């Protein structure tokens, strides 16, 4: 081979390969599915469907799945299985100049693990508080004088107050760090202890834990379905908006957990003759079907909440009309409201105008969308308190979220552990359990910043800047590295050797042209959107005039510097390590050429003989 490739023989060719293997194929599939299926399937995909025309969003979603998601996923599973190494080992084997891609993936997985487990910390806090009746977020606490509810809660609502004040105890500005919230610290330590216990033995314990928690998650999802199911109507006109296609491609990319290195690590423990092509298609389809299945449950809850909000709106308007016109109680029913309002508005327009009645349309409440923590800790919790047996529903919902998030955490930590073990940074005499414990401890201590009163602001920064741009860059170099450096023919030969089938026209065209082009387009579009919009954050400020609406604030200069560092820290390894390799190799070549020149110089040969003669005399 040329000097670009590090080795000629591949790990999979060795009969003495002592790398651990999965107990069975089912464990491996569940681990990959658990890593791919995460919180984004619950609170990101339904939000995009609701925002972009409901069923119409599925068109760009499945286009992105076919031409971007599955081809890239197949590359990761195949190259990890063939070379039988983690993300760092794979890219150093393909080319020493690409080693920075693997190190960058390690850094991204580390940063994502910090804030991902913080979300599980919040979920655990809500889960523990769900074993109460009534639920603690169902009513406002009394003020110090016990003469009425706390003013902040009264001006917002019960679920907002429990989230922003009783859980986060949030500051009004990111410049104010606040103090550590010890109840959250206890939950954070508990979450990291659970993660450590589940991954302590490597894939042996990870596979078994994944089976347990993934089954729980899917059971909870099935149980949480409500009888009221609402899917948004199709709006195909919205497909003309390029942002729809960008968000669909991005959702596929992050939903499958591409470029983290976790799938490469998981597949490296496979038998070299495993059918990785079939696995890639199966896992990708299960992930997408889970998103659709979860959307039904999410829209059921959102529909239930929207209906209750619609009825509350009608009831408030009806009470206002009854009081204004001195009608008998319950003289106006919900079904008669529109007829009564139309009649009064035509005959008593001035009096109706003074009432300032709210516009009550069911579709308006259905169109109110939310994602992320806003969906989980505000919208869903508000819907749950209106359900019969609300504590039970809360336990099921937050139990499902915790199980889904935990299975994704296993993949994130495997993306960190496997490369570190493969690089042999730590002597082999050190037990793997101790290495895992040290890494989990470092992560737990690093994540303490998220338990500050300003912690949610910082989590949003990590979520926006630590992974998104870096993963697009790493995925692009993955395709280029495998298809153009390792070589399309060689890679196809490897896939044929592993699966018994040579990749067909679809695989080769998507790998060579379509997938890298899509990644490049997404990357450019992402950069343009970042440049066009100045970064802001929403501040929870009870003194704000429009409270409880969040106050939009610009990040201060020092925070923007941290955002830039987070964006560049992982991806800087790609050019940095390539430059380091280039300089190192040139220095070695210079030394070798100098040694050869010195060896051929007659004067040097005479000097060496004189030295040897003197040694002989002595």
User: Which CATH architecture of the largest domain would you pick?
Assistant: Orthogonal Bundle
Can you summarize the main beta sheet? 2 strands, antiparallel
Number of strands: 2
Count of alpha/pi helices: 25
Number of domains: 2
Q: Helical amount among residues, as a percent range? A: 55-70%
SSE class: mainly alpha
Keywords:
618 residues, mainly alpha, Hydantoin permease, 2 domains, disordered N terminus, symporter activity, transmembrane, membrane, Neutral_aa_SLC6
Task: Tell me about this structure.
- The chain has 618 residues and is an all-alpha fold.
- It has 2 domains: 11-571, Orthogonal Bundle (Hydantoin permease); 572-618, no CATH class.
- Helix content is 69%, strand content 1%.
- The longest helix has 50 residues, at 276-325.
- It is elongated.
- The two termini are 49 Å apart.
- The model is unreliable at 1-9, 204-210, 223-230 and 602-613 (pLDDT under 50).
Summarize, please.
By secondary structure, the protein is an all-alpha fold.
Helix/strand layout:
Blueprint: H1 25-36, H2 39-43, H3 45-51, H4 58-83, H5 87-94, H6 99-129, H7 151-155, H8 158-167, H9 182-199, H10 203-223, H11 242-255, H12 262-267, H13 276-325, H14 337-347, H15 349-355, H16 362-366, H17 373-384, H18 390-423, H19 432-446, H20 455-465, H21 468-499, H22 505-532, E1 536-539, E2 551-554, H23 557-571, H24 573-600, H25 602-617
Antiparallel strand pairs: 1-2
Helix pairs in contact: 1-10, 1-13, 1-18, 4-11, 4-13, 4-21, 4-22, 5-6, 6-9, 6-18, 6-21, 6-24, 8-17, 9-19, 10-18, 13-17, 14-15, 21-22, 21-23
């Amino acid at each position: 081979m040329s000097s670009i490739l590090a080795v000629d023989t591949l790990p999979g060719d060795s009969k003495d390969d002592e790398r651990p293997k999965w107990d069975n194929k089912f464990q491996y599939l569940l681990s990959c599915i658990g890593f791919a299926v995460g919180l984004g399937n619950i609170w990101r995909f339904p939000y995009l469907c609701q925002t972009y025309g409901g069923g119409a969003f599925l068109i760009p979603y499945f286009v992105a799945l076919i031409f971007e998601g599955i081809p890239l996923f197949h590359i990761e599973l195949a190259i990890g299985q063939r070379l039988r190494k983690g993300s760092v080992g794979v890219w150093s084997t393909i080319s020493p100049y690409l080693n920075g891609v693997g190190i960058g993936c390690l850094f991204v997985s580390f940063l994502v693990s910090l804030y991902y487990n913080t979300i599980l910390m919040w979920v655990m806090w809500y889960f523990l508080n769900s074993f109460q009746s009534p639920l603690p977020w169902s009513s406002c606490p009394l003020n110090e004088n016990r003469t009425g509810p706390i003013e902040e809660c009264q001006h917002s609502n019960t679920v907002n107050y429990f989230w922003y004040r009783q859980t986060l105890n949030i500051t009004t500005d990111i410049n104010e760090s606040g103090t550590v919230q010890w109840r959250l610290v206890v939950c954070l330590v508990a979450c990291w202890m659970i993660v450590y216990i589940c991954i302590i033995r490597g894939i042996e314990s990870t596979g078994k834990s994944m089976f347990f928690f993934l089954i729980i998650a899917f059971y909870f999802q099935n149980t949480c379905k409500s009888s009221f199911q609402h899917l948004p109507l199709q709006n195909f006109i919205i497909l003309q908006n390029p942002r729809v296609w960008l968000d669909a491609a991005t959702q596929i990319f992050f939903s499958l957990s591409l470029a983290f290195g976790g799938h490469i690590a998981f597949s490296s423990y496979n038998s070299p003759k495993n059918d990785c092509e079939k696995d890639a298609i199966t896992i990708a389809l299960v992930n997408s079907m889970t998103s659709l299945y979860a959307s039904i449950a999410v829209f059921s809850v959102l529909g239930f909440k929207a209906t209750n909000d619609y009825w509350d709106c009608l009831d408030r308007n009806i009470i206002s009309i009854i009081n204004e016109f001195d009608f008998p109680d319950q003289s106006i029913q919900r079904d008669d409201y529109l007829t009564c309002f139309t009649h009064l508005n035509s005959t008593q327009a001035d009096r109706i105008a003074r009432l300032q009645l709210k516009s009550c349309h069911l579709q308006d409440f259905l169109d109110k969308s939310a994602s992320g923590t806003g969906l989980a800790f505000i919208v869903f919790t508000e819907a749950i308190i209106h359900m019969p047996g609300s504590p039970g529903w809360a336990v099921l919902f937050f139990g499902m979220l915790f199980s889904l998030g935990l299975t994704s955490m296993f993949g994130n930590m495997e993306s960190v552990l496997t490369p570190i073990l493969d690089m042999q940074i730590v002597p082999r005499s050190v037990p793997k359990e101790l290495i895992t414990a040290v890494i989990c401890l470092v992560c737990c201590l690093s994540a303490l910043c998220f338990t500050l009163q300003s912690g949610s602001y910082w989590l949003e920064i990590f979520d926006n800047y630590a992974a998104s741009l870096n993963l697009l860059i790493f995925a692009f170099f993955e395709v280029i590295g495998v298809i153009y450096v390792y070589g399309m023919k060689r890679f196809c030969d490897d896939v044929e050797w592993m699966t018994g089938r040579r990749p067909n026209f679809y695989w080769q065209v998507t790998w060579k042209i379509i997938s890298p082009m899509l990644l490049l387009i997404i990357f450019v579009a992402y950069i343009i959107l970042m440049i066009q919009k100045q970064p802001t954050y929403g501040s929870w400020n009870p003194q704000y005039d429009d409270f409880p609406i969040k106050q939009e604030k610009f990040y201060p200069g020092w925070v923007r510097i941290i955002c830039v560092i987070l964006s560049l820290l992982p991806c800087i390894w790609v050019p940095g390590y390539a430059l380091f390799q280039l300089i190192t190799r040139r220095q070695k070549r210079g030394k070798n050429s100098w040694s050869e020149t010195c060896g051929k110089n007659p004067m040097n040969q005479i000097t060496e003989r004189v030295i040897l003669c003197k040694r002989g005399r002595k």
